[in-house]
Write a structure and sequence with these properties.
48% of the residues lie in helices and 14% in strands. It is α/β, with parallel strands linked by helices and 328 residues long. It has one domain (73-154, 172-326): Pyrimidine Nucleoside Phosphorylase, Chain A, domain 2.
Length: 328
């Protein structure tokens, strides 16, 4: 199935501009906490359009201390699926960067789980405390940078108290993955539900981005190695949808227990073992979720070829060597 969305991704609607203006006001010093509470309640109780989410997220990015850099990719999931899987989106971002893709990974410490992407990067030894002057230097040195959201998207902090008061999922749970201040041209987005994955694909089309947005039928915000996953590919303002079975790509049957771990430290170690090729169950999971990045960048014809390329990079030690360089 293939559809065009909003005039080949070029349209700028009134809804988007109204949303942009509203968010600019809400993150300014002139907005009140009551206004922020009212806004969050509205977003929690109503389904927002792709145009509105595009406008809100564009406003958040506009307040960042960093400027967009062309040609970058981000690989990110919404989190919140409660599955306690290994840190696969972060591992996939590192893996993709080892294969020549320039990756700006945008993330945060754990909020809904006990092992967020920033927590994993700290476990690796990655220094999260750096300013904008060092950002491009890090990116150019290793094709990879990890941006801790609160450091560079200070607009989020203006809503911190309101989000605590509301205590429910709001538009901020959706916006997190699409507010990378470097504004990547290529996006790999995982969602814990199919509706949000579809919305993400529309947001990418509106923004003339290229990417893949997916959600597994089991509720994982990743491509499942043991079941069906719905994928929306976005290119040139067009959205196409496919449904894949992870086992058909990997050629292996994976027990979900092999890629989950509730204890944070053991989860981080399990993720690292997958990157280093010491735990092939996790390695296959990482390769499966890195594969769309290669397809989106036209480095592979299909997911199967991409998966094989990534597994070769993992088992040969290329990814492990690269992971070590990132934290040097």
């Amino acid at each position: 199935m293939q559809t065009d969305y909003e005039g080949n991704g070029q349209a700028s609607t009134n809804a988007e501009e109204d949303a942009y203006s509203r968010m600019i006001h809400l993150v300014s010093g002139s907005a009140t906490e009551e206004e922020r509470d009212e806004f969050l309640r509205y977003t929690a109780d109503n389904k927002l359009s792709a145009q509105e989410i595009t406008g809100f997220s564009r406003a958040i990015r506009s307040r960042s201390s960093l400027s967009p850099v062309p040609g970058l990719m981000d690989i990110v999931g919404t989190g919140g699926d409660g599955k306690n899987t290994v840190n696969v989106s972060t591992a996939s971002a590192i893996t993709a960067s080892s294969l020549g893709i320039r990756v700006a990974k945008h993330g945060n410490r754990a909020i809904t789980s006990r092992h967020g992407s920033a927590d994993f990067m700290r476990f690796l030894g990655y220094d999260l405390e750096f300013g904008k002057d060092q950002a491009l230097m890090r990116l150019n040195r290793s094709n990879f940078i990890y941006l801790l959201a609160p450091h560079f998207n200070t607009a989020f902090s203006t809503f911190s108290e309101a989000r605590k008061r509301i205590g429910r999922r709001t538009v901020f749970n959706i916006m997190g993955p699409i507010t990378n201040p470097l504004d990547p041209d290529f996006m790999i987005l995982g969602s814990y539900n199919l509706d949000t994955a579809e919305i993400y694909s529309q947001v990418l089309a509106i923004g003339s981005k290229t990417g893949a947005c997916f959600s597994s039928e089991s509720g994982m915000d990743e491509i499942s190695p043991a079941g069906r996953t719905h994928i929306y590919y976005v290119r040139d303002g067009r959205i196409s949808k496919s449904v894949i079975n992870g086992e058909s790509v990997t050629g292996e049957r994976t027990d979900i227990a092999e890629i989950t771990e509730p204890d944070p430290v053991r989860c981080f170690q399990k993720t690292l073992d997958g990157l280093y090729g010491r735990n092939l169950h996790v390695s296959r999971f990482i390769a499966l979720n890195t594969a769309p990045a290669l397809v989106v960048k036209n480095l592979a014809r299909n997911l199967e070829d991409a998966y094989d390329m990534v597994m070769q990079a993992i088992t040969s030690g290329i990814v492990a060597d690269h992971a070590r360089r990132i934290v040097e």
